[in-house]
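User: quick one - fold this with IPE bound?
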Amino acid sequence: MSLLGKIDLENLPSHIAIIMDGNGRWAKKHRKSRIFGHTHGIDSVRNAVEACAELGVSYLTLYAFSTENWDRPRVEITALMKLLVKAIRNEAKQLNDNNVKLTAIGDLNALPKSCLKELNEAIELTKQNTRLTLVLALSYSSRWEIAMAVRKIVKDVIDEKIHFDQINEDVLQDYLATRDIPDPELLIRTSGETRISNFLLWQIAYTELYFTPTLWPDFDKEELYKAILDFQTRERRFGKISEQIKAK
Ligand code: IPE
Ligand code: IPE
Ligand code: MG
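Assistant: Sure. Structure tokens for the protein plus IPE:
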């Protein structure tokens, strides 16, 4: 029986972030090339997007390619970029039909031109959509994002657009790539690794973390429901004590 019926729709995370890991190991398990794993990973992306849209989750951020992933073998990078172009091309219409808005965070100018073009077209096509915002983290790393934010702040101080006395957490947040996106309530990482790998370090200050041994290509809708159900058992205290939370 599906776990869907057990989910409390009044207590959904409005933003779920996922570190989609384990494509390579999944491929190895099936005695196939790493690229085969990445190709299958796209089905899991489709499932996660669909499930979030159906449930009423407002934001889904997917870590698709990190700054550090540029250090992988060239053949893998080339294949991944080709796959990305193909996936965006194939899925853009479907996303649009389902009222999903596509956006991206990261050093997008580092992407191959063909990739950036396809991405920008899909972003443009879907920009009016309101059901779910799908954020792709591409050539993204959190330290890069924070360093960029600091650079922009310093420039605005020099240009006298803001005074250094005004700089606080809210201002810094406004200079991040995620300025228009609320912090995730739930962060999922697949493949059994229990690390963050330079993803949304600022934004996950109070996020609930969920780690599963499931490899990304095996992560289906039920796996997502399981993660949400686990999230719904957590008491989010934000530094307070349990009684204060319960008194609300
Ligand atoms: C995640 O799967 C996809 C990307 C990082 C692009 P991996 O390729 O990291 O798979 P494993 O971790 O080697 O199994
Ligand atoms: C994190 O996975 C990045 C993405 C999922 C895009 P990695 O496979 O690159 O992370 P590490 O190297 O195991 O930390
Ligand atoms: Mg990995």
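One thing worth noting: The pocket of IPE (ligand 2) is lined by residues 19-21, 63-66, 69, 193, 195, 197 (CB under 6 Å).
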